[in-house]
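User: Predict structure, ligand iron/sulfur cluster.
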Amino acid sequence: MLRLPEYRYHRPTRIAEVQALLAEHGAEARVVAGGTDLIPNMKHRLFEPAHLIGLSAVEELRGVTVDDDVLDIGAATTLDELGRNAEVRRHAPALAEAARHVAGPQIRNRGTIGGNLCLDTRCTYYNQTEFWRTALGFCLKKDGDTCHVTRVGKKCVAAHSADTPPVLMVLDAEVDGVGPSGPWTHAVKDLFVADGIHNTRLEAGDVVTRIRVPISAARRCVYRKLRQRQAVDFPLLTVAVAATRVDGGWSDLRGVVTGLGSRPRWISGWDRIFEGGPLDDEGIDELAQRAWAQCHPLENMIVDPEWRRAMVPVEVTRALKELRAREG
Ligand SMILES: Cc1cc2nc3c(=O)[nH]c(=O)nc-3n(C[C@H](O)[C@H](O)[C@H](O)COP(=O)(O)OP(=O)(O)OC[C@H]3O[C@@H](n4cnc5c(N)ncnc54)[C@H](O)[C@@H]3O)c2cc1C
Ligand code: SF4
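Assistant: Predicted complex:
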């Protein structure tokens, strides 16, 4: 049986208290929302915070409201609530769908959208017990100095494996938070960085408070997930595409893929291939090939990277065809 390291649990009810506890305990503290990722990682001794600051009793961090054409989601809203919320299903159905595809029901009952945005990256050589990692001599991301995937280089390429960020990115969502120097806001598409050791712009003491998704009646979004089993599993590949309905077709087409490298990849150059109009099969083919050309998965998980790469154009094509079918 894997045991947790010793820690002291704090249960604040206000964001100001969370901030005060983070300031008091500094690097020894970590916030925990649903704990569905952090607690297993602590059992594997990937993190050993002496103080855990729970967010689940902070009412300000919960719930979904619609305000001035913006869907405003509290960071501690559970994935189950998000997947079932009528406003989310109406204004951002792809986000509800992404939430409903995370893990299984028990994990969605506890896991939150804030935790999903801040999810640690994953790798075959990292998400293992301490005993397993000791035998290998650890790795760059934790306690070692070598990356067993690239074998050279000083960057970790563990996979970003969260399902909701690609959808939030193509929908132009923003994330609000508070930190030691006050409130901050990032566009979700600028939140992630290309280093799997710590793959977000969040700094020590930062807490995500809300996620804001602009509402547009003309925009359509499609989310697709590839995984080994149709339940519980992390994504091998997640694709999100969005575009705006206009007379004669579509405009402002964008796409994001994740599950491959350390951050979600915004597919570049689609605006040069597709300037607007109808989405025909030939155009979809070209867009899918463009996505394939930009994706180079490595051996950071047990599933063959060449197969994962080959599935990029397949899933992007499916997503674009689903989008086209939503013309009404
Ligand atoms: C078996 C299994 C399958 C899974 N499958 C999937 C899957 O298919 N797709 C997927 O996306 N995820 C999956 N997960 C991972 C996880 O359950 C989800 O990503 C979940 O949304 C994490 O949310 P949480 O509230 O439990 O995060 P926690 O575990 O509480 O926290 C995760 C990290 O985020 C930080 N954090 C949490 N909230 C905040 C905040 N408000 N501000 C700043 N930092 C914060 C924590 O400090 C920690 O570092 C799976 C997990 C398991 C165990
Ligand atoms: S990608 Fe390399 S450094 Fe990162 S977790 Fe895997 S083995 Fe470690």
